[in-house]
From TrEMBL:
GO MF annotations in UniProt: GTP binding; metal ion binding; RNA ligase (GTP) activity
Family: Belongs to the RtcB family.
Protein origin, superkingdom: Archaea
Cofactor note as given: Binds 2 manganese ions per subunit.
Residues that hold GMP according to the record: 208-212, 334-335, 383-386, 390, 409-412, 486
Residues involved in Mn(2+) 1 binding: 101, 209
Species classification: Archaea, Methanobacteriati, Methanobacteriota, Stenosarchaea group, Halobacteria
Residue sites binding Mn(2+) 2 per the record: 240, 334
Gene assigned in the entry: rtcB
Organism: Halosegnis marinus
Positions of the UniProt region annotated as Disordered: 173-203
Record-given protein name: tRNA-splicing ligase RtcB
PANTHER family found in the cross-reference section: RNA-SPLICING LIGASE RTCB HOMOLOG
Alphabetical list of InterPro entries matching this protein: RtcB, RtcB-like_sf
Protein's GO biological process: tRNA splicing, via endonucleolytic cleavage and ligation
Length: 487
């Protein structure tokens, strides 16, 4: 008898270990799949994630199945941890399935420092980083951009940063798409969005965004870890942020336009938050160009923060950052819809691969993996909570056949920010991390720390275990926080 899982009016059947499926019914165009262990599935079923996942199968052109990664939780229309490949010729593109923080993502910078080099200087380092890297809501960035600067960033991405002295050549070759989406159309980004972004270039923002100094605690695949330049006890830096107010405004702009111009498509969807523009329409092309421009902005945002971090380390440790081996390992986007060619049940197709809170995970040999990692697979960075550590994976061989080349993007939330502030007190969390785990945290408010308490998140070890077992993202190394700054 087939094993099933009941969650309200949703019944999932077990396809095989860690793969659960909601069969098509009613107006569902394809099945919906959840990749999870039973404990993770029980947590995923606690909110509207399964309902939202089922709703995504109504989008025109959705191909094979809609997916929820092991870290999935309720989002805006489309679940966080959601992946959908949608036909780029006969389907649609959905801003809600990308999210408000376009190209929210993470980058990891390795160093030649060891934990002993940092031990005893954590407070000095966290204070210096907090002073140097703008955090929190509103304006303030490493660069106060005028209009021509914003236009150049939107069009050229990290190439602009290289020209202006904020990057080195290796930063481009170790970034997804070399830090530039050539389909970017700055003219498709509204003036209001540009105005919101111009003073936020090089800033973390608020919420779950952070800059974290970490140490490598474990390596699981010696050959791949060596290819990635990772070794136990090594210090690395993880940066997590996105396109700030510019991306948020762009998403909002296009959701409103879709409501006005494609009300007929919207009327056929079970949730207005899935608002989508038909492939080939003027609005779909405009949104894609605007989204790609926001992607470029976010890559520059993380690049500027990394540059400032290099300067801080140079000051604190009194030597040039180059001598400390502060090189970019990789930068990955996890809120994005990209045109990619995939083998589907209907043959090879160009798809808009929507990844919302999911990470591209292309395996070894894929032509879009940077040359430095083509023999090992694309690096995948999965942040955990401040008290549980993070992981580096490599793109798994099964990812192309199972998940349109995708895996999880983090631990995934267990509770809302409102609930977190009711359950935790920021000062207690901060003290507990410092005294119990030697993790030094600084933020602009105690509420921010409470919202990001370790207890707010799922078990990242379990999320990664599922990814590794399914072969969509293979374990390479584990890291643990040393110090962390938040908005």
């Amino acid at each position: 008898m087939t094993e099933t899982f009941e969650a309200g009016d949703v019944t999932l059947r077990r396809v095989r270990e860690f793969v659960w499926e909601i069969p098509p019914e009613g107006d569902m165009r394809v099945p919906a799949r959840v990749l999870a262990s039973r404990p993770l599935l029980e947590q995923i079923a606690d909110d509207r994630t399964l309902e939202q996942l089922r709703n995504t199968t109504h989008l025109p052109g959705v191909t094979d199945y809609a997916l929820c990664m092991p870290d999935g939780h309720q989002g805006y229309g489309f679940p966080v941890g959601g992946v959908a490949g949608i036909d780029a010729e006969n389907g649609c593109i959905s801003p809600g399935a990308v999210g408000y923080d376009i190209n929210c993502g993470v980058r990891m910078m390795r160093t030649d420092l060891t934990y002993d080099d940092v031990r005893g200087r954590e407070e000095e380092l966290v204070e210096a980083l907090f002073d140097a890297v703008p955090t929190g809501l509103g304006g303030g960035g490493v660069v106060q951009g005028d209009a021509p600067t914003v236009e150049a960033v939107l069009e050229r991405g990290v190439e602009w940063a290289l020209e202006e002295g904020w990057a080195v050549e290796d930063d481009l070759t170790h970034c997804e798409d070399e830090g530039r989406r050539p389909d970017a159309d700055p003219d498709a980004v509204s003036q209001k969005a540009k105005d919101r972004g111009r003073n936020q270039l090089g800033s973390l923002g608020s919420g779950n965004h952070f800059l974290e100094v970490q140490r490598v605690t474990d390596t699981f695949d010696a050959a791949t870890a060596e290819a990635y330049g990772l070794a136990e006890d090594q210090v690395v830096v993880l940066i997590h942020c996105g396109s700030r107010g510019l991306g948020h405004q762009t998403c909002n702009d296009y959701l409103r336009r879709i409501e006005q111009e494609h009300a007929d498509l919207l009327a056929d969807l079970p949730d207005r938050e899935l608002a989508a523009a038909p492939a080939g329409s003027e609005l779909a092309e405009r949104y894609y160009g605007a989204m790609c421009a926001c992607i470029n902005f976010a890559w520059v945002n993380r690049q500027l923060i990394m540059h400032r971090t290099r300067e801080v380390f140079a000051d604190v440790f009194d030597r040039p950052w180059e001598e400390m081996g502060m090189e970019l390992l990789y930068d990955v986007a996890h809120n994005i819809a990209k045109k990619e060619v995939h083998e589907t049940s209907a043959g090879e197709r160009e798809l808009y691969v929507h990844r919302k809170g999911a990470t591209r995970a292309f395996p070894a040999g894929h032509p879009e993996v940077p040359a430095a990692y083509r023999d090992t697979g694309q690096p995948v960075i999965i942040p955990g909570s401040m008290g549980a550590g993070s992981y580096v994976l490599s793109g798994g061989e099964a990812s192309l056949s199972e998940t349109f080349g995708s895996t999880a993007h983090g631990a995934g939330r267990l509770m809302s920010r409102t609930q977190a502030k009711q359950e935790f007190w920021g000062g207690d969390v901060q003290d507990g991390l410092r005294e119990g785990q030697k993790v030094y945290v600084k933020a602009s408010s105690g509420a921010t720390i409470a919202e990001e308490a370790p207890g707010v998140y799922k078990d990242v070890d379990e999320v990664v275990r599922v990814s590794d077992a399914l072969g969509i993202g293979d374990k390479v190394a584990r890291t643990f926080p040393v110090c962390n700054i938040k908005g």
